């Protein structure tokens, strides 16, 4: 087995992985639940939260907190799903790499 060929293949794979990860990091995701919309990027950073205040009564603060929590978790699941789709071919057999 040619060690140089293996090293070259590993370097290409590493470059491809980093390109795919950068692509995911730059993607935008959005999750809407009731009157809350959460936007974020592939780094799981929340970039914007929008609340439709016309639908909100003052007594709904606790419900609003729960809705934001659900929306943020849904957004993170979207990022995880795309990451698995794009990075899975590189990380098979290596759980927890990304």
Characterize the structure shown.
With 98 residues, this protein is an alpha+beta fold. It has a domain at 28-90: Ybab, Chain: A. It contains two helices and three strands, in the order H-E-E-E-H. The chain has a three-stranded antiparallel sheet. Strand 1 and strand 2 (36-41) form a beta hairpin. The longest helix is centred in the last third of the chain and has 31 residues, at 61-91.
Low-confidence stretches: none
- The ordered H/E elements are HEEEH
Beta-strand proportion: 15-25%
Radius of gyration (CA) equals 19 Å
| Main sheet record | 3 strands, antiparallel
What structural class should be given to the helix and strand makeup? alpha+beta
**Strand runs, count:** 3
CATH fold type of the domain at 28-90: Ybab, Chain: A
Instruction: Summarize model confidence as the mean pLDDT.
Output: 83
Name given to the CATH homologous superfamily of the domain at 28-90 = Nucleoid-associated protein YbaB-like domain
* Count of alpha/pi helices: 2
């Amino acid at each position: 087995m040619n060690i140089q060929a293996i090293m070259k293949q590993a370097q290409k794979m590493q470059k491809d992985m980093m390109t795919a990860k950068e692509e995911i990091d730059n993607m935008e995701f959005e999750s809407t639940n009731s009157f809350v919309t959460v936007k974020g990027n592939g780094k799981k950073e929340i970039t914007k939260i929008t609340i439709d205040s016309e639908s909100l009564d003052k007594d709904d603060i606790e419900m609003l907190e729960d809705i934001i929590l659900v929306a943020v978790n849904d957004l993170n699941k979207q990022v995880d799903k795309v990451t698995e789709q794009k990075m899975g071919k590189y990380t098979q057999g290596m759980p927890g790499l990304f």
